[in-house]
Amino acid sequence: METIRGKRLSLLIKEEDIKKRVKELGREVERDFATSKELIVVGLLKGAFIFMADLVREIKLPLKIDFLWVSSYGQSMESSGNIKIVKDIDVDIEGREVLLVDDILDTGLTLKEIYEFLRIRNPSKLKTCVLLDKKERRKVDFNADYVGFEVPNLFLVGYGLDWGELGRNLPGVYAVED
Ligand code: PRP
Ligand code: MG
């Protein structure tokens, strides 16, 4: 039984199921960006790093990767709704085809704001991909173009998601038990 800080974790999505779904997402992205000469995949740090690493290996197209380091939650379990750009991307995305990747879409505050932050730089195409979608928590009108799994409103860790920076390295997605 996995635990973090004495709290038990219950497995929600196992490693093999993530792997299978990530392959499918790769096929979807390939289909939609089939004519792309050079796709730019932008991941949101830190949460997206594992999903992004797996996803790009399933996209058999010429692509470049970059990361945008944003922070909204800090140590808290709730979104502060106050997104901070810790580090911007290095590439110029004007006229380029961009796929924005994150681990989870929760209130939607982060992705909606970052989508707009990139959109005003005039990419020719901008799509979003998240592994997890906690739909019932949405506070703003925003949905991702590609979603791995819809998940219930539980506090989740693993596969990039953390609880106070712990648990990102768990290969599956777990709910922290009360
Ligand atoms: C988490 C998660 C998403 C965001 C989703 O990031 O990785 O980026 O919150 O929440 P929202 O839809 O309510 O905005 P966090 O700010 O915790 O930082 P991290 O990626 O470094 O874990
Ligand atoms: Mg994040």
What does this structure look like?
With 178 residues, this protein is an alpha/beta fold. It has a single domain (15-153), classed as Rossmann fold (3-Layer(aba) Sandwich), CATH 3.40.50.2020. The protein has helices at 15-32, 49-56, 109-119, and strands spanning 3-4, 7-13, 39-45, 63-71, 84-87, 97-105, 125-133, 146-150, 156-157, 173-176. The chain is globular and about 50 Å long. The model has no long low-confidence stretch (mean pLDDT 94).
What is the tally of beta strands? 10
Number of helices: 3
Going by CATH, the architecture would be: 3-Layer(aba) Sandwich
User: What hetero molecules are in the model?
Assistant: 1-O-pyrophosphono-5-O-phosphono-alpha-D-ribofuranose, magnesium ion
The name CATH uses for the topology is Rossmann fold
Poorly predicted spans: none
Strand order of the largest sheet: 5-4-3-6-7-8
Question: If you compute it from the alpha carbons, what radius of gyration comes out, rounded to the nearest whole angstrom?
Answer: 16 Å
The secondary-structure class comes to alpha/beta
Pfam family, one: Pribosyltran
Pathway: Purine metabolism; IMP biosynthesis via salvage pathway; IMP from hypoxanthine: step 1/1
EC number: 2.4.2.8
Protein name: Hypoxanthine phosphoribosyltransferase
